[in-house]
Amino acid sequence: MVKNPGREPTAQEIAETAESMKVAHKFGPSYHRNKTELHTTPACKSKQCKDCSDISCPNFSSHQECPPKCRRGCKNQLSRTKPELVPFFIADTGDRGKGLFAKTDIPADTRILYYSGEIISQRASKIRWNKYDDKEREQSYYFAAGDFICDPRNHGNAGQYANNSCQPNMVAVQCKIHGKAENYRGIFFDAYRDIEKGEELTIKYDFDYDSSVVRECKCGELNCTKSLNMLPPQPKKRSSKSRSGASEKKKSKKS
Ligand SMILES: [Zn+2]
Ligand SMILES: [Zn+2]
Ligand SMILES: [Zn+2]
């Protein structure tokens, strides 16, 4: 993890970050063919809840994004939040391509970003995968999104620049999104602990193990496994095509 205490983003980094956060999901034909009924989140009426941004909110704590018309000041609306309000910026890490860095101090459990991509069915993702050559597989970063797969390849926002770490400071949370299918989940990256301004924001991707695809981790933490893949399965389990569930995806390389 890179630490740049107090580091302020340049105007160019701010602009690039805001631009990348304008990228919206693309819900492809296979999403529409496989979606179940649409999810409705009730507006929050809890007396304990202040702004729907922590577990005192029944919607937040049950992993549902609030509807557009929730209580005044509702902050559980990240998939609809203005791109320029994000608490991070994209910058060069030096040895690992681009990365994300905290623009301010970020308290634990803060919802940091909505991970964007093309939402496709698992079947469509397998067909796509089978057509890729080794290089394309190496650069392909699927992320499970409920019954679907989020493929950031052509529709990814800044989330795709979050680097892998074996000691990450963010965690991926899957949430139901008001107005989207019940069997779809939006992927949010939340702060796993208090994060200081200038720290690099990292996540643990844990791809399903696939020995044919090399994804090296260069996080530099003491416990680094040197790989973005999960540990190999026990001998004999699991067929050679692997990677089917695509539990999580990715990391950089798009510098
Ligand atoms: Zn609430
Ligand atoms: Zn709310
Ligand atoms: Zn590592």
Automatic annotation (TrEMBL):
<dbReference type="GO" id="GO:0032259">
    <property type="term" value="P:methylation"/>
</dbReference>
<keyword id="KW-0539">Nucleus</keyword>
<protein>
    <recommendedName>
        <fullName>SET domain-containing protein</fullName>
    </recommendedName>
</protein>
<dbReference type="InterPro" id="IPR050777">
    <property type="entry name" value="SET2_Histone-Lys_MeTrsfase"/>
</dbReference>
<dbReference type="GO" id="GO:0005634">
    <property type="term" value="C:nucleus"/>
</dbReference>
<feature type="domain" description="SET">
    <location>
        <begin position="74"/>
        <end position="206"/>
    </location>
</feature>
<dbReference type="InterPro" id="IPR046341">
    <property type="entry name" value="SET_dom_sf"/>
</dbReference>
<keyword id="KW-0949">S-adenosyl-L-methionine</keyword>
<feature type="region of interest" description="Disordered">
    <location>
        <begin position="230"/>
        <end position="255"/>
    </location>
</feature>
<dbReference type="GO" id="GO:0008168">
    <property type="term" value="F:methyltransferase activity"/>
</dbReference>
<dbReference type="Pfam" id="PF00856">
    <property type="entry name" value="SET"/>
</dbReference>
<keyword id="KW-0808">Transferase</keyword>
<dbReference type="InterPro" id="IPR001214">
    <property type="entry name" value="SET_dom"/>
</dbReference>
<keyword id="KW-0489">Methyltransferase</keyword>
<dbReference type="GO" id="GO:0005694">
    <property type="term" value="C:chromosome"/>
</dbReference>
<keyword id="KW-0158">Chromosome</keyword>
